Automatic annotation (TrEMBL):
Pfam families tied to this protein: DUF2179, YitT_membrane
Protein name in UniProt: YitT family protein
Coiled coil spans: none
Chain ranges of the DUF2179 domain: 227-281
GO cellular component entries: plasma membrane
Segments traversing the membrane: 15-38, 44-68, 80-98, 113-131, 151-176
Keyword Cell division: no
Membrane topology: Multi-pass membrane protein
Compartments where located: Cell membrane
Record keywords, A-Z: Cell membrane, Membrane, Transmembrane, Transmembrane helix
């Protein structure tokens, strides 16, 4: 059987994607250095842990966030894909390099409430841009995806559970008032991430694709995303002609890559991305893991 070859991502799109990853990492670095650190406020996840240890030891935040994320990047490479891993590595390295360069800039505000609101907005925008363009700045969600195979929790529930310990630790280290500001920062940042990435409320997304190139798109999804697809029979509403419809369930970290695959093969494809409350079944989990 002849091996099918699929179009790779164009060089122009790769350059654009990495520019956006750089901008996202820069915004996150600005939020951390000019709003959060001067006011002893943290975020959740690996970024929050790195900020806490930086506060206790004076070890560079950039070094900490890079080192702590290495295992998650490796896991992402093995279980999600090399493009995701490389995009995440680029974003995290950019964050680690840019953040120390901002030390000499005076903080924008020393008012905790202002730092909480605007730091959260800026951080959420930066992290959201990185996720939207195929990467991640925080390994917590990657860990959540990998652990949901064995744990009876959704990714969102795991992240929330993880952050209970982070903010509890922050209460003892920074004081309970700063911990409460940090929780507000995390909430604002998470909502901003949802806004930037467009609809990340759920852990998984159900996608319906209608295209005349359904075979090529299906093969590319299987080969490049490691997802199984379901092909449905449909009929056009105007001409009553038969249509092949592709149905696939993906994680939110894979939305950007799926859009790229579809755009490379058929710019006229009709695609619907829907939130799913839950996704069960060995095929879906094995595709992740």
């Amino acid at each position: 059987m002849m091996e099918k070859k699929h179009r790779s991502e164009s060089k122009l799109h790769i350059i654009y994607r990495y520019i956006m990853l750089l901008i996202g990492a820069t915004l996150a670095a600005l939020a951390i250095e000019l709003f959060l650190i001067p006011n002893s406020i943290i975020d959740g996840g690996i970024i929050g842990i790195s900020l806490l240890i930086n506060h206790l030891t004076d070890i560079s935040f950039g070094i900490l966030v890079f080192v702590f994320n290495i295992p998650f990047i490796y896991s992402g490479y093995k279980n999600i894909g090399k493009n995701f891993a490389f995009s995440s590595l680029f974003g995290i390295v950019a964050l680690a390099i840019i953040e120390p360069q901002l030390h000499h800039i005076s903080p924008f505000t020393t008012e905790p409430l202002l730092a909480t609101v605007f730091g959260g907005l800026l951080l959420g925008t930066g992290v959201g841009m990185v996720i939207r363009h195929g990467g991640a700045l925080d390994g917590t969600e990657i860990l959540g995806i990998l652990l949901t195979k064995k744990l009876p929790f959704s990714i969102g529930e795991f992240v929330m559970f993880f952050n209970v310990f982070v903010f509890g630790w922050a209460g003892f280290v920074l004081g309970w008032e700063q911990a409460m500001y940090s929780i507000i920062t995390y909430y604002i940042a998470s909502k901003m991430i949802d806004s930037v990435v467009q609809g990340l409320e759920g852990d998984t997304k159900a996608v319906i694709i209608v295209s005349d190139h359904y075979e090529e798109i299906s093969d590319a999804i299987i080969d490049r995303l490691g997802r199984t697809v379901t092909k449905l029979k449909g009929k056009g509403g105007f001409k009553d002609n038969e249509k092949e419809v592709i149905y696939v369930v993906i994680t939110r970290l894979e939305i950007s890559k799926l859009k790229t695959i579809i755009g490379e093969i058929d710019t006229n494809a009709f695609t619907t991305i829907m939130d799913t409350q839950e996704a069960h079944g060995s095929k879906f989990k094995s595709a992740i893991h």
